[in-house]
Write a structure and sequence with these properties.
Blueprint lengths: L57 H27 L1 H23 L3 H19 L13 H25 L10
Helix pairs in contact: 1-2, 1-3, 2-3, 2-4, 3-4
Length: 178
């Protein structure tokens, strides 16, 4: 007889049978011990997305190059936009970064869809940040908007890369624990 909580699972003779219980060795929610039998199999990977180690095809390489060019353009536009209209321009520049990173992740289905434009954006922004002319002109002024754009862009890239890895691993959405 098997108890419903799994705490005292015994075989037919009333004594423990070294894992050969009447319920086939499956563990229940409360037991936490014993062997686990898959109930529906492993979660299926999301359809429509390539595997994590997907091979490089000419189309994917072209998409990465396109993402790299768009990242440089978004970095230039965001640099000018966040300084032009402070609260709204900063939010618009960060929204452009969300679109770039999330769109790159969805378009390629790999982590490279976030990492390639993220690295291109970061290098472009830091090159623009370090470029000071002899007259004293530079694109990033000392202010809250510049730091918000730099830090916000890095945070957005990390969030999009992490979300893409969870989606590629097949982590189900919804509540944890049923």
């Amino acid at each position: 007889m098997t108890t419903s909580k799994g705490g005292g699972a015994t075989g037919k003779g009333g004594a423990r049978n070294n894992g050969a219980d009447a319920d086939g060795g499956r563990r229940t929610r409360a037991s936490g011990s014993g062997t686990a039998a898959p109930r529906g199999g492993a979660p299926a990977p999301p359809t429509g997305h390539p595997a994590a180690g997907a091979p490089l095809t000419p189309g994917r390489v072209g998409l990465y190059v396109l993402l790299l060019v768009v990242a440089v353009l978004v970095a230039l536009a965001g640099t000018l936009l966040q300084a032009a209209w402070f609260p709204g321009g900063l939010l618009l520049a960060l929204a452009g970064l969300v679109g770039l990173f999330y769109g790159g992740a969805r378009a390629t289905g790999t982590a490279g869809g976030v990492l390639v434009p993220g690295a291109a954006w970061l290098v472009t922004v830091f090159l623009l940040l370090s470029d000071v002319r002899p007259e004293g002109d530079f694109l990033f002024g000392p202010g809250l908007g510049s730091y918000g754009f730099l830090l916000g862009g890095i945070v957005i890239a990390v969030i999009c890369a992490t979300g893409n890895q969870l989606r590629a691993a097949g982590v189900p959405r919804g509540r944890v624990g049923g």
